[in-house]
Amino acid sequence: MSDQFFSKNQWALVLGSSSGFGGATALELAKRGMSIYGVHFDRAATLPNAEKILGEVKKAGVNGRFFNVNASDESNRNEILDEIRKDFDSDKTATLKVILHSLAFGTLRPFVASNKEEMISQKQMEMTLDVMASSLVYWVQGAFGRKLLKSGSRIYAMTSSGSHMVIPDYGAVSAAKAALESNIRQLAMELGPHGITATSIMAGVTDTPALRKIPSGLELLDYARSKNPGRRTTTPEDVAKVISLLSRDETAWVSGGVIAVDGGEDITSFLPRTD
To answer: Which of 143, 188, 247, 258 is most buried (CB neighbours < 10 A)?
Structure first.
């Protein structure tokens, strides 16, 4: 039995494709036969990893195009979507099967502090919400308006337990994750009549570049490992495999909810170790 669920004329648009969940999902979907558009924002130090992922995508035998730009910029977004529209005009069999929103760029500061300079500013708060929540809506609007999304298309957004739990200095990102889940619910309702689904993917605590920017990130990893029933933390590959499975035709009735990919971490308060 073939392990390729998809065909290379089916494309995924991965926002945040150079590392973490986005990178792993790009590779998994490519391995399963899907072509990849990737959007990432990397400087010289981290650019080699994006290039490596693109190389692995092409090595899987599918097509790949990566764009190294700020995904939250309106002009960049329009240029990329216009490029995709041109590609699809040249290949009438091409379809946009998946949009994955995996943008992790926000300000990690407390809401209140004795020193005003330490507190999050209005500009930082608004930027975090824009990049990590609102931009999903704008990308979907642009894709839908260009008739790139069809019946059978899937939209995913990466959320976390921070949407309903508090973590030091995580307030703005937590607000963004809660808003992101709300945006997914709204999109699921509005796009449902078109046969398009929208689902939030809640990963467990995962060792990614974004997590390591959180001041308490390594402590979170240790705590998640100690209480997870599976006795380990989540990996980007765990998440990528679930997104791949959810993108198959058989899952067309899954929409609007939050799918936890965490081995039971979020529902478990604490498990004393017995090993």
So the answer is: 247
Neighbouring residues of 1: CB distance < 8 A, sequence distance ≥ 6: none
Cα–Cα distance for residue pair 218/204, rounded to 1 Å? 14
In the chain, the number of structural domains is: 1
> Given its phi and psi angles, is residue 153 left (phi above 0), alpha (psi -120 to 50 degrees) or beta?
beta
We report the CATH number of the domain holding residue 180 as 3.40.50.720
Residue 1 in domain: no
Helices (H), 72-134: 74-90, 122-129
What does the radius of gyration of the chain's CA atoms come to, in whole angstroms? 18
CA separation for the pair 171, 121 (Å, rounded) = 12
Signed CA dihedral, 248, 253, 255, 259: sign only? negative
Amino acid 147: pLDDT: 97
In a domain, 274, yes or no: no
Confidence check: pLDDT of 154 > 80: yes
Query: From CA 259, how far away is CA 85, in angstroms rounded?
Result: 30
pLDDT at residue 2 tops 70 = no
